[in-house]
Amino acid sequence: MVVTDAQVRKLMEELSKHGKKELAAMRSGMDPKTARQYRREGKLPSEKRRPRTWQTREDSFAEVWDEVVARLSEAPTLEAKALFEHLCEQHPGRFAEGQLRTFQRRVRQWRAQHGPDREVFFGQEHRPGEAMQTDFTHITELQVTLAGEAVPPMLCHCVLPYSNWEWATLCHSESLLALRRGVQEALFRLGRRPKVHQTDNSTAATHHLGSGKRAFNDEYMSLMRHLGLEPRTIAIGQKHQNGDIEAIHGALKRRLEQHLLLRGSREFASVGALEVWLADVFDRVNRGRQKRLSEEMTVMRPMDVSRLPEFVEERVRVSRSSTIRVRRNVYSVPSRLIGEQVRVRVYEDRLEILFAGKPQLVVERLRGRHGHRIDYRHIIRSLVRKPGAFARYRYREDLFPSLSFRRAYDALTDAFAS
Fold this sequence. Notes:
By secondary structure, the chain is of the alpha+beta class.
């Protein structure tokens, strides 16, 4: 019969009460000889057990383990899952899918004992008011909608790593305009500015130099000079160097998810309503960071610079097709502007077209390149006079107000062709 720790404790307790060995052994449910042994050694059963160093079941990978070690030695970055799949192909019917986790554990243990040295990360001490880190993060998994439509899919997220004070603005892409808006929104809300602004190597701040190197682009440097910030970037592919904000991304999205659950709905009436809700969430979480934030505020400089506009301005000429080309995308404008030069204010989410200082048109900005947005109202009068131009018009698909119009056109075309 196996003696337990509880029995030995009971034995010692009884002996300390009356010192009668046989009575103590009986009350602890133990043979007197066994009780004498534990009394003499003064150890619990758990303290006497030796750790098991032998296997309790047959090693399924013993016969192929030399091959596994050779593979791992030749290719240190080889993943256990890929190697397991290779073994299954080389030895059909020998291994089952359920053995993958066992194999992964064996590989992990081998690497810990015999593998190459791994990279060491050195935690850095943050100084109050020294830096602000900025990064973009996707929020599509939150499934927030605006009147049934998808919201801007990203946040421009700014963090002071010393206090973890944070702010974020909605954006459509990792563009310089989104970065400009996000950084300025955070800084002017603080009312003070740190010494350094740190980003990763996104195209919003840097451009490719060749040989795997990147440098800050002119527009980003102009923004940094205006705000009086020293630009700093992390090494390419080294996201851990932006560690505070990378880590806080996950916490931010979990927090937003919880607030959405408490709100009871993921639907918002407008972008403005969503931004107000986001601001309230950040105000709440930042209240718990006031002590360390106050340390930062005392050493940061005041925001004594003007706020840059959230757009860049371009001058373009309206073509004979009643279109303009802006940032490698094509947009239609009223035909009365053909031949004229117009000013285009390029925002992160829209374009504002002005002529002679007066607004003419606001249009949603296209993402990417080689896109086109043609409004049939801008060219319909000319098209009525030249109906034959419609069949092969380059942007014909944009002119159908809805799918029903497209189907009607196809039906009429087929009818006349027959």
